[in-house]
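Page 37, continued from 36.
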């Protein structure tokens, strides 16, 4: 539990530096995100004992990752379509997210998203964080409901994943993180493998930011 708390504090500091209006203007977001990703993977593998088993590298797991990435892109396309019509502030906040690409080489951003940022986030948030919460809930004698033991790790992880984005003061980004956190959290619950999560997250990142942006 102590390791998990320390890891959460580290992530909170990293996300504050990357997104807060007091620090973000003074650094390159993509460089900072890549460094943060490396830190997350180090925490996961060294402190958290996360492992990616070679037996998980199957065609089925990779296919699940590809299909779910496309499905999640569709969810966000629909979310963008509806939110920009329901909320007057939505388009402006979405534009701010996409402005992070301005002045940067999109090929480099794509490579970082595909091979560093996307995989790192899944290794940490699902492979280490959610797995650790799951172990804590499973051993807790206070949690008597099997349904809650199954559900709590997904909800807690998704909530914290969303809340660390609060430093951006961007409601649309926070909600996007919450949706993604729930999507990937339940996906991890059902697949019981980190591989399809890595494929899904990496491909979705590249698609929504570079290849097929949902907003101009």
């Amino acid at each position: 539990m102590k390791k998990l708390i320390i890891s959460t504090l580290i992530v909170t500091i990293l996300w504050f530096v990357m997104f807060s209006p007091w620090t973000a203007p003074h650094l390159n977001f993509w460089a900072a995100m890549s460094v943060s990703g490396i830190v997350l993977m180090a925490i996961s593998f060294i402190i958290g004992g996360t492992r990616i088993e070679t037996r998980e590298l199957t065609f089925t797991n990779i296919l699940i990752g590809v299909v779910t990435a496309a499905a999640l892109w569709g969810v966000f396309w629909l979310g963008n379509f509806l939110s920009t019509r329901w909320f007057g502030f939505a388009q402006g906040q979405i534009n701010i997210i996409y402005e992070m690409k301005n002045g940067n080489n999109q090929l480099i951003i794509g490579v970082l998203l595909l091979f560093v940022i996307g995989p790192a986030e899944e290794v940490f948030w699902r492979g280490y964080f959610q797995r650790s919460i799951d172990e804590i809930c499973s051993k807790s004698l206070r949690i008597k409901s099997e349904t809650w033991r199954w559900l709590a790790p997904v909800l807690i992880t998704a909530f914290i994943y969303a809340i660390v984005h609060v430093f951006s003061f961007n409601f649309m980004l926070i909600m996007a993180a919450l949706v993604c956190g729930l999507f990937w959290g339940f996906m991890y619950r059902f697949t019981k493998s980190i591989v399809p999560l890595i494929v899904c997250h990496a491909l979705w990142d590249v698609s929504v930011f570079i290849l097929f942006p949902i907003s101009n």
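The first helix runs from residue 2 to 19. Flag for discussion at group meeting. Helices lie at 2-19, 29-47, 59-86, 90-98, 106-139, 146-163, 171-191, 195-211.
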